[in-house]
Write a structure and sequence with these properties.
Length: about 100
Amino acid sequence: MKLAIIIIAIGAAIYYALYGGGPIEELLQERRQEQKAEAQKSLAALKAQYWRAAYRSPTDCQIEKTELRKLECKNAEDNTRQAFDRKWEADIARGWKPTPKGN
């Protein structure tokens, strides 16, 4: 019985080496790509959730303001967002796994 399993495994390895994965490999690759896309969407949603929880615009940026103040508020938000993105990427690179925050 063990010999039969070994022969089948060797035959499968030779077939795979000569002819590639064929339709099964294509299906597996498609599924991996779908899973990767789903994981990226989920991570993007979590990142947006963390950003909403982390950023609060200054009170004076929420009221009527001049064009100059609008630009200053936008720049402040952009700078804060860039710092958030850098920290997020560094945390992910270190192996941190974000979890959904409660509403």
